[in-house]
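Supplementary Text 2. Reproducibility record for the structural model of the 443-residue chain.

All settings were left at their defaults, and a single model was retained for analysis rather than an ensemble. We include the record here because the model underlies the residue-level annotations in Supplementary Table 4.
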Amino acid sequence: MTATDTIVAIATPPGRGGVGIVRVSGPAAAAIGRALAGPLPPPRRAVARHFRDAAGEALDAGLALWFPAPHSFTGEDVLELHGHGGPVVLDLVVARCLALGARAARAGEFSERAFLNDRLDLAQAEAIAALIDAGSGAAARAALRSLDGEFSARVHALEAGVAELRVHVEASIDFGEEDLELLADGGVAERLAALARELEALAASAEQGRLLQEGCAVVIAGRPNAGKSSLLNALAGHDAAIVTEVPGTTRDVLRERISLEGLPLLLLDTAGLRDSPERVEAEGIRRARAELARADHVLYVVDATDPAALAALPRELAALAAGPPVTVVWNKADLAAPPAGTGLAISALTGQGLAALRAHLRTALGYRPGEAGVIAARRRHLDALARTQGALGAAAERLAAAAGTELVAEELRLAHDALGEITGRVTSDDLLGRIFASFCIGK
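Retained model, structure tokens:
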């Protein structure tokens, strides 16, 4: 499989629909188009055609579009056939393309070719997947900003600043004993500080974008009958979980996805935490503890009317201290006043305190709705930005300690390369394979 192959895939989602699109990209796209749909249409104009098999019989009727290289999404010759959205019809068209010399595209291969042909950088390519997977309007807007190049432009600006500083520092190495004197005028330190400030602002925007894209997992935990399932239902806005007065009703982990002002949340209602000899309930408790270890945040629900729950709370919280952050939620606050200053008071039954709980979750998870300039980002981007911050900080420390120009230059090189990983200037085949394998087929 090489970039000189011609690839084909269905570019619309699986299932039935009014329209289905088959996309072909590569050097044989023109020949395939002529054999299947007749003379090629003028570039970027939709023309009605019949799509025919080897015997000349019509497979489907629709629109043919022709995008000659390099003015196409992939930078190669691209043919798009817009027909009817039935899976059988689309499979027949794809089979005809395969018979004419194309091969089936790998996941994300069209976007990968666009990257390899410099039609977009790696951050923009990843924004395509983010836009497709967006779970809210805010996430979609952040992904579109990245696809339009806003994230890449800010990274390129930082790269340029670091590169200029590298040139200045590395050039001074040639002056031997005078090198540190050339760097001691304060200009390098000031430029490092300015780059660090720009990087901090970009990292903050990227973290908001990661939250919008990936969301957060919030586990609802606590003793049996504390009101965990009732809280899940109240936050979800419908009866997602069965609620009874019988302890141990929830046996397995129940998952419900909600949006918190654009932030996707995965709420997990878990079995009540206690020692149980009953095998099924014990398995549910084991699964609950496993989810607690993986959560981004824990809502620990306590029955405000239960004196035993109040007495046991310090011990139970101590057992959770090594895990993710925990917020104590006093349920049934409409029936009894919880201790002051020990958590949030709510009533899952009446809705009391739920608005404050939602606001607390936004703050605890670091989400700032409505913030301007948020861009779609992944964990690998945040890791690269963090390594850049570390390298710039180390460069500043070495400069202040007069540790040697070569050491300052090396830290700047590490910072430069870390930024290059975001846009794909510095990358590896393994990284590209992992990134594009997460895309859908046909994109």
